[in-house]
Amino acid sequence: MFNPRVLPCMRALMRGTAAAMLLGAAAVPALAQDWQPTRPIEYIAPANPGGGWDTLVRTTARVIQEEKLAPQNFAPINIPGGGGAVAWAQIAAQKGNPHRLFAASPPIILVPLSGASRFTHKDFTPIARLITDYSILLVRADSPYKTANDLFNAIKERPGLSVGGGSAPGSMDHISMAGAASAAGLKPAQVNYIAFSGGGEAMTNLLGGHVAAVITGAGEAQAQLKGGQIRALAVSSPKRIASLPNVPTYQEQGINYTFDIWRGIMGPPNMPPEAVRYYENMYARMLKTDGWAKARDQLGWIDAYQNSAEFGKFLDAQHAQFSSVLQDLGLLRR
């Protein structure tokens, strides 16, 4: 039997439930709303066009647009100078800006350690590590040097023989070349390393005959190798790269040496956590697309994704590792 005294209680309960539902509905959008970029992203390669940073920025920007992974365009911008230091100074001044990102690789560790920049990896926000590449030793197609040992023997006999690279002294290309030379029996100081403001400028000087060889990333050398103007003496991978099956490793030539070049994306200091989450997730999705797979394979890159937290820990470990390497080479600056 219905009890009329229950009705006021039921009405009160329903009013309370409705109010709670309204409050909950109002709260849901605030909790569930995801951050998204509201204007084009300034997507910075801290060097001239043609190098590894530039290749990463332009390739990922194209894939992001083609795969419709973001509501805004990623606009590549080149800011050369100081092996990355000029760009880093500008980016560091944009604290909290979620619409500015830049390509990063070992120089973000090496350049500050060698004293060429006052900004370290700690001054920026890690977003995601994306790929691993390898270092490749190149000469002109008409060069008399046929193997890596040919070149190293020539450097022993002619100490002034120059090797160019697209990173600053004490940075990635220099360290890669010094390490290979050391493994081949030379003193690192015997390598006359010439620093250019990017891989593209280094390649231009090689083709012009201004340097005997160039050390750079394997991915950024693919087009020139296919064009036949240059020839590769060695690659720093543990085994031959699938996209460059005719290029021998250092190890195949009796030089016990490997060197990998990671590349990733970072942002200004103090970026909002929700923006960091957005970008790291976007890059994780990008690496699963067909467009990325095609570009990656053409460039000979290897996927090596890490999210922001993992990337940050990796950078700290790289700092410790490279500090030891530079100290051994006499290039560490405090």
Spatial separation of the terminal alpha carbons: 87 Å
Largest sheet descriptor:
10 strands, mixed
Q: Please give the CATH class of the largest domain.
A: Alpha Beta
| Annotation field: number of helices | 11
Structural class: alpha/beta
- Following the backbone from N to C, one meets helices and strands in this order, namely HEHEHEHEHEHEHEHEEHHEH
- Number-wise, the strands total 10
Q: Which fold name is given in CATH as the topology of the largest domain?
A: D-Maltodextrin-Binding Protein, domain 2
Low-confidence stretches: 1-32
List the main descriptive attributes of the protein structure presented here:
334 residues, D-Maltodextrin-Binding Protein, domain 2, 10-stranded mixed sheet, disordered N terminus
Explain this structure.
By secondary structure, the chain is an alpha/beta fold. It has two domains: 41-131 and 261-329, Bordetella uptake gene, domain 1 (D-Maltodextrin-Binding Protein, domain 2, 3-Layer(aba) Sandwich), CATH 3.40.190.150; 134-260, D-Maltodextrin-Binding Protein, domain 2 (3-Layer(aba) Sandwich), CATH 3.40.190.10. It is 42% helix and 19% strand. The chain has eleven helices and ten strands. α6 links the parallel β5 (162-165) and β6 (192-195).
Summarize the structure.
The chain has 334 residues and is an alpha/beta fold. Helices cover 42% and strands 19% of the residues. It has 11 helices and 10 strands.
How is the topology of this model organized?
Blueprint: H1 6-32, E1 41-45, H2 52-66, E2 74-78, H3 85-92, E3 100-104, H4 107-113, E4 125-140, H5 148-157, E5 162-165, H6 172-183, E6 192-195, H7 199-207, E7 213-217, H8 222-227, E8 230-235, E9 260-267, H9 273-286, H10 290-299, E10 302-306, H11 308-329
Parallel strand pairs: 1-2, 1-3, 5-6, 5-7
Antiparallel strand pairs: 3-9, 4-7, 4-8, 4-9, 4-10
